[in-house]
Design goal:
- About 75% of the residues lie in helices and about 0% in strands.
- It has about 450 residues and is mainly α.
- The protein has a single domain (about 10-195, about 215-435), classed as MFS general substrate transporter like domains (Growth Hormone, Chain: A).
- α5 runs parallel beside α7 and α17 runs antiparallel to α19.
- It is globular and about 60 Å long.
Amino acid sequence: MSSARQDSAPPSAWQLLALLTLLNVFNFIDRQLITSLQIPLGEDPDLHLTVLQNQLLAGYSFSIVYSIAGLVLGMMADRTHRPRLIALGLLIWSGATAASGLAHNFSELALARIFVAFGEATLTPAAIAMLADVFRSRQRSLASGLYYLGVPIGSSFSFIIPNLLWPIPWIGWRGCFFGLGLIGLSMVLVLMFIKDPQRGATESLAFQGAQTERRSFLSSLLETLEAIRRTPALWMTMLGAVIINIGVGATWLDTKWLFEERGFTKSGAPIFIGCMLLVGGSVGNILGGWMGDMFNKRRSGGRLLAIVVSQIAIAPFVIAYRFLPGDYFLLLGVCYGMGSILITIMYGPVLATIQELSPVRLRSTTVALLMIGLNIFGASLGSVLAAWLAGFLHSFTWGIFITAQASLLSSPFFLLAYRRYETDLARLSNLQLGEQKV
């Protein structure tokens, strides 16, 4: 049997990936409803959310809880049955999504968002670690990229479907929250019967040592922070991903931008975004996963080079669409679709790199720390900064454009991480081989 076949994942791994990806789709539909329905939420006589309030609900009110809970739940995922932990989270976030439809003021909606954030925090740290346990190194970038199809598919469905439904009088924006929450609740029971993969099962013996040792939450956190500090390629990769997400957060205002400054209708703006994100974002996930694994075969740490190459190639399209007039519909769509590729292309390479540079027993905790950076210091910061600049400059175009340029600062960090990757990976292997001998 060839080495390639031996390294290929079994059918059960792909089945687990499909289930986790489906859950991630619902994760992002629920999460993005606040953004996709920002126009009817702003016009509702009870809520009457301002642009800044909407961005706070989409960003910091969600991200702070999501990040803090994700850190605790990520450490819990490193020591407990992960599918059942995700099932509990799905129960909470779907119930809170349904409850959002009952909100009659900003405070009630913010409270529901807190529970959505807490529930969703169970998913990604546990899911990424599970995928690393069933997919070997040569396929991890692709597996992570496919899992993060939840971003473009979930976000696009959140833009398209609710904006087709909320104008119907007997549905409205409240019915969108009710319906989505009930669909999520129906999937909870399925997770209770999923087997938790053996931790480190796809690694060499050197990486499987000391996996059953129990540590306190504080010890696990301190050990993870120390592992990140001592691994420059790891923390520079994480920092690069956070910087990219500042620009991603700025795009959360795109619905208002297209409606206010490009002449799109209230429903047409989010549906347009959803369609472009569905196509471009999905291509970005698959392309990023494929490119990452291909580059990595030729150069150790090549996944990081794949991100830099894609940024250089797509940046002109991202800059162009921000200044195109609304009646250049076809060209605007092409450039927006290319920009959507750039939003998602990093996920596969970044997550695969982080999994390989993290101690096996600390993978979920490391991903949880990444989520803190991506959400609090990345997307949420970008969305609020863009909203503030848009108000200060009286221009959504310039507010979003200026904020989005922060993403270009990520390339130097990815290049530096690439130069350190092989050294840090060898050091980690030697360290865990020593643990195995002990």
